C-alpha cells in the first residue's frame, strides 16, 4: 500500500476510534436503562471495525486478495438473493451454472484483466445460457419469471459487484499504482 492509502486507513481508524468512544460514553450514560438505539449504534460501529479490518488486510495482501474478497461477497450476496427467490427442481442446472461457472469465471476474467470479455460475459453469454439450462428440466410453470430471477440475481450480486475489484484494472494517467484508493472511496461512499 502507498502512503495515501495508509493515510486513508489511518483517518478511517481515527474516525472509528472517535465513534467508538462516543458510543461507549453514550452507553455508559444510559447504563441504568437499556437503550436499543445506542445498542444499534454500537453494533454498527463494531461492524465498521470488522469491515475496515477485512478490507485493510485484503488491500495489504494485494490484487488477488481484493478480488477474492469481492468474489466471497458476490457468492454470499447471490446465495442470499436466491434463497429469497422461489426455485423449482428444474432450475438446479441453471443455479449450478450460476454458482460454479458464471461466478468464478467472472472473477477469473477480472484477475486476468480481460476487460472485453468480463464486461459482457454475464449480460450476454450467461443470460443466453441460463434459460437454456433451466428449460432442460421441462418445467414450464412460471418459466420466464424463474429464469429472469436467476439472471438478475447474477446481474446484481455478481456482475455489478465484480466491477468494484475491476477498478484495479483501470489505467489512469498519473494515478498508477493507486487504484486501491478508488475502491476505498467507493466503499466509504
Layout of secondary structure:
Blueprint lengths: L2 H27 L6 H26 L1 H21 L8 H20 L3 H4 L2 H15 L7 H20 L17 H9 L1
How would you explain this protein's 3D organization?
The protein has 189 residues and is mainly alpha-helical. It folds into two domains: 1-61; 63-171. Helix content is 75%, strand content 0%. The chain is built from eight helices and no strands. Helix 4 packs parallel to helix 7 (143-162) and helix 6 packs antiparallel against helix 7 (143-162). It starts with a helix and ends with a helix. The mean pLDDT is 91.
Keywords:
single chain, 189 residues, mainly alpha, 2 domains, 8 helices, 0% strand
Task: Write a short abstract of this structure.
This protein has 189 residues and is mainly α.
Largest sheet: none
Shape: flat
Q: What gyration radius follows from the Cα positions, in whole Å?
A: 21 Å
H-E order = HHHHHHHH
Helices and strands: which structural class?
mainly alpha
Residue share in β-strands: under 5%
Poorly predicted sequence stretches spanning 5 or more consecutive residues: none
Helical element count?
8
Mean pLDDT: 91
Separation of the first and last Cα atoms? 20 Å
The total domain count is 2
Number of E-type strands: 0
Helix content range of the residues, please? over 70%
Amino acid at each position: 500500500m502507498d502512503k495515501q492509502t495508509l493515510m486513508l486507513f489511518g483517518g478511517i481508524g481515527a474516525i472509528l476510534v472517535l465513534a467508538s468512544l462516543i458510543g461507549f460514553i453514550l452507553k455508559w450514560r444510559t447504563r441504568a436503562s437499556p437503550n436499543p438505539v445506542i445498542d444499534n449504534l454500537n453494533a454498527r460501529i463494531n461492524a465498521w471495525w470488522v469491515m475496515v479490518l477485512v478490507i485493510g488486510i485484503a488491500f495489504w495482501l494485494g490484487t488477488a486478495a481484493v478480488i477474492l474478497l469481492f468474489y466471497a461477497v458476490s457468492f454470499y450476496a447471490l446465495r442470499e438473493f436466491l434463497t429469497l427467490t422461489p426455485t423449482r427442481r428444474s432450475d438446479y442446472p441453471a443455479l449450478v451454472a450460476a454458482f460454479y461457472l458464471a461466478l468464478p469465471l467472472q472473477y477469473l476474467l477480472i484477475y486476468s484483466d480481460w476487460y472485453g470479455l468480463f464486461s459482457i460475459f454475464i449480460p450476454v453469454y450467461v443470460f443466453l445460457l441460463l434459460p437454456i439450462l433451466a428449460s432442460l428440466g421441462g418445467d414450464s410453470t412460471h418459466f420466464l419469471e424463474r429464469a429472469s430471477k436467476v439472471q438478475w440475481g447474477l446481474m446484481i450480486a455478481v456482475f455489478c459487484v465484480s466491477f468494484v475489484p475491476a477498478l484495479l484494472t483501470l489505467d489512469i494517467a498519473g494515478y498508477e499504482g493507486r487504484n486501491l484508493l478508488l475502491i476505498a472511496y467507493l466503499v466509504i461512499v
